[in-house]
Amino acid sequence: MKFMKLGSKPDAFHTDGSCVRYVSSELATDVIINVGDVKFHLHKFPLLSKSNKLQKLVSKAGEESLDEIPLADFPGGSKAFEICAKFCYGITVTLNPYNVVAARCAAEYLEMTEDIDRGNLILKIEIFLNSSVLRNWKDTIIVLQTTKSLFPWSENLKIVGRCVDSIASKTSVDPSLITWSYTYNRKMATSDQIIQSGIKFPEKTESVPKDWWVEDICELDIDLYKRVMVAIKSKGRMDGGVIGEALKTYAMRWLPDSVDALVSEVHILRNKALVETIICLLPSDKSISCSCSFLLKLLKVAILIGADDSSREDLIRSISLKLDEALVSDLLIPARSPHTTIYDIELVQRLVDQFVANEKSNRDLKIVDKNSKSEGEFVLAHGSWLKVGKIVDGYLAAVAHDPNLSISCFIKLSRSIPESARPIHDGLYGAIDIYLKEHKNLTKSERKNLCGLMDVKKLTTDASMHAAQNEQLPLRVVVQVLFFEQVRSAASAHALNNSHNAMDPPRNTQENWGKSAPENRKSLRKQMDEIKIKDEELLKNGKLAKRSSKNRASGAQLLPSRSRRIFDKLWIVGKGLANGENKSSETSASSQSPTSMIQGETKSSGSSSRQRRHSIS
């Protein structure tokens, strides 16, 4: 810490009680000056020789026959005035970073300029500030902290501005030129001395990180902190990642951990100002280094303390740029009145919508020829889409337990991302399964719409096995799962067969196809026969009726007939394949028919269809 001594005479100031200060001298005091609650019994000559202000006041007091001279609103109070008075007497005073601002403001009040006396107090303090204090990192921070209680004097004298500029300049210094002892809060790093077998290894010097200054300025008040950060950003030489780390450190330093302390009447205004300031200082681009997890926690606090709408909108915009880095647990933000759900679903919906809009906008700017790439190719080239797809499915699974979550909100959030961003539907199926278990009173139409969100072709083998035994799913969905699993198995067997045939000499392609196609069709028909037989056994044992219908009272005979019709169609597909024929699906267009997967399907005559159905039944 830097300091400067002024004067050489011993201290002659004494105290009489708690409110009287006087100078012991052979000469009697001839002026009383009141500064706050303290009365100073002093001599006119040394004071008037240095202060233009006191010259005017003493003259006015003589005209009005006043015994005492009051100094109203004196900056720095009685302690600052005593420094100025001792300087006038030539008594030794010591200036340091803690009192230099108060002394400078007091000297300005008393007009202790060069016009009154050469080498006056204002000049000496300015020399000390510019040559010593503002060149030292920790001293500058201390000085800036003391300016808060001396507004507006410290502001008008540009002490605040000079401190802010000095700090901002020092943060841009090459870290290799910084030592740990140069910082305010962090101690100088020293390596342990290793002594082995009488050999002493040299100490290793620890490199200084770019954010060496972050913790030091956390001691500043929020208003001063904001000015420093604005100055650092305006210089344009600080990496956005370091700025983000500084904002995170400051928030963690001052925001309380408990909710009660956060919203208490004593601190809520300060906390609100702190959060709104941090939000306005966040970098506006995606390069912001603050993690998405921290931003979401900041959003929770902003909602809790009632930050203004513009601050929350700015924060939501920043989060949407980094939504692919979010965790599902951080997205579980409690809903507030008038929302009836446990978590704020609408907020997450907005985040997803903004993320999708941003990504699509960036894609349009980057792709010159829009027809050169399909949406699927674009998504595969950009992992952020796939990450958000997983996050949305995980979030849906987490909120599906909420009994107040409407099916419309569930479906809307699920459809917020493009289909190509969800190449595998296991996560979506898991969320749908939870929702069906927690919402037993869904109608048949609602179950159909809910299950229509997932594509059974995009389920993995494990998910398909689970879905095939899931009693919550509509029967049509279960049949689709079984069918496509069989198609997948047949395709795998065909691919394996082709790999074995690759070792044989090449033959005519048409002959190979003509020979292999009937075999694959027979295999598929055999598999469909097995499904048919197993289903009929289940129907006989009454187990299939347990998979729910639209009416338990009158549906005892409806379930078997319904399943028979569906499996009859599967049987027809198998028989048609065996005869080298194809047939289109007779199921409704709203649901995905298993037969739609058969390549090259064509419509056959209605009479042929009816004859086949009659021959089977």
Describe the protein's architecture and organization:
54% of the residues lie in helices and 5% in strands. By secondary structure, the chain is mostly helical. Strands 2-3-5-4-6 form a five-stranded mixed sheet, covered by helices on one side. Strands 1-7 form a two-stranded antiparallel sheet. Strands 8-9 form a two-stranded antiparallel ribbon. A hairpin with a 2-residue loop joins strand 8 and strand 9. Residues 187-205, 368-373, 376-381, 506-524, 538-567 and 569-617 have low confidence and may be disordered.
Low-confidence stretches: 187-205, 368-373, 376-381, 506-524, 538-567, 569-617
Q: Roughly how many Å apart are the termini?
A: 100 Å
Number of helices: 26
Biggest pleated sheet? 5 strands, mixed
Helix/strand structural class? mainly alpha
Helix residue percentage: 40-55%
Average pLDDT works out at: 78
Report strand %. under 5%
Rg value:
41 Å
- Strand runs, count: 9
